[in-house]
Amino acid sequence: MYKVLDHYYLYLKNNCYAVVVGNTHSNSFIIGYVKYCGSSRETIWCSKYDCYERLVKYYDKREVYNSTPWKTFIPNYGSETPIIPISMISKVYDPRYRVKEIIEKPRDILEKNCLEILFELCRNIRLDSIGLTGTLLIGIHNPKYSDI
Hints:
4 helices
C-alpha cells in the first residue's frame, strides 16, 4: 500500500473524507478519523459535484472519536482508537501533490493567495517538502471561510 503520512486525507467509499493521524499504520487500517461526509443540503464545503457536512466541528477527543464508526484497541496507545479500514479507502490525497496542482493552475482567490505564500516559502524550503492539507487539499474549500 502507498505510504500515508500524518494529515494526508482519504476519500472513502461512503462519500466521506478522513484525516490521517500519525505515520505508522497497520496493513488493514489507517489511524485517522472521519471529518467530512456528503450532505444532501448545500453547505460551505462543496466540490464541483457534492457538498459536505463537517462532522468534527472542533478538536476535542470525544468529537473526533465519535465522528468515526470504526475503532480498534491499539496497545501502544493503550486505548480504543478511531481507524479507517483499508477496504473503505477509494483515494489517498497527498498534500505535496496538491501544491503542484495549485502551482500549475490556481482555481480561485484562496488558491492564488496560497500560491503567493508557496513562492515565498520556496525561497528557503524545497518545493517537494511543502504540502497543503485540510479543505484546500481535497478541493472543498470555500474562499469566503477557509484559511491557508
